[in-house]
Amino acid sequence: MNLKAYLTLLRPANVITALADILAGMAIVGFVWKDNSPVFLFLSTVCLYGGGVVLNDYFDAVIDAKERPERPIPTGKVSKRSAFFFGSILLGLGITFSFLYQTQSGWIALFIVFGILTYNRFAKHHSVLGPVVMGICRGGNLILGMSLVTNIRSNQLFLSLFPIVYIAAITMISRDEVNGGKKTNLVVAGVLYIIVIFSQLFLSFFLGNLYFNFPFVLLHLGMIFPPLIAAYQNPIGPKIGKAVKFGVLSLIVLNASFASCFGFVFIALLVLCLLPVSLLLSKYFSVT
User: Fold this and answer.
1) What is the pLDDT of residues 104-118, one digit of tens each?
2) How many helices (H) and strands (E) does the chain have?
3) The pLDDT value given to residue 209
4) In Å, how far are 58, 62, 119, 176 from 240, measured between CA atoms?
5) Structure confidence at residue 34 (pLDDT)
């Protein structure tokens, strides 16, 4: 077995960002940690995200043979059949781990798996449905973190719209990372980014934690907009790919910002510690 090929399928740098979702969700509901069982939520999200990206390569094997021939399946380092079983096992483990925490978490994980399969099999190449379904998967992951408690309030669930909008923006511009594209998608993505960031500023102001949140917002802005502006000025594949890469990795900063909105500075800093790990892994394993 070619271990590096399987790790490449997993996109480890991206998986780290899923852990940040869980920590942010926990912060939103008050971070009530009674025992070690919430560890199952971390194991669940790693498996769900990993299974999703592995099956993404499985369903895109024909396209990748033309556009990304260096990926593990086109090179023959991992067979399609092996990738299918690997991804399926990971999704199964993700569901199992979430049910081991509590039933509510298990149902949320099942919803995420439904979204993953819908995206990979049907929605990915649809101009509108694709970004929306991918965003819903990410919003579901934030809610999985909120399932730390059994009584998730409706106003807390509403916050899952932020990652939905944010991921929809990233997914929209990622369509052009191979051959380049139009500037329109980049402008729309920038507007969606700003909506999410200003919404977080408003939320932190409303909760009286603006002074905690503002430094994270500045870091976030500094991370996502330089590559986005560079791609707008010259919308070729590599520059768009870089904008997508930093959009994905900056999810960690987005989640740290979420935690700071609710006054959990320690959790926000803990989430932020995931960023250098993800950046390091991105040097060795593809993000997009």
Assistant:
1) 999 999 999 999 999
2) 16, 0
3) 97
4) 24, 22, 22, 7
5) 72
**CA atoms of 284 and 119, how far apart (whole Å):** 26
Tell me what pLDDT residue 13 has: 96
Contact 108, 98 (CB under 8 A): yes
> What distances in angstroms separate CA 51 from CA 59, 71, 176, 266, one per listed residue?
12, 16, 24, 30
Q: Which residue's structure tokens are 């139009």? A: 182
DSSP letter, residue 151: -
Q: For residues 277, 283, 284 and 285, what is the CA-based torsion angle, rounded to 10 degrees?
A: 80
Integer Cα distance of 55 and 64 in angstroms:
13
Residues whose CB is less than 8 angstroms from the CB of residue 143 and which lie 6 or more positions away in sequence, other chains included: 25, 108, 152, 157, 160
Q: Are 261 and 207 in contact (CB under 8 A)?
A: yes
Cα separation, 87 vs 72, whole angstroms: 14
pLDDT for 58-74, tens place per residue? 999 999 999 889 999 99
CA distance 43 to 64: 29
User: How many Å apart are CA 241 and CA 233, to the nearest integer?
Assistant: 14
CA separation for the pair 250, 234 (Å, rounded)? 22
Q: Which residue has the tokens 């094997």?
A: 61
The token duo for 180 is: 């380049």
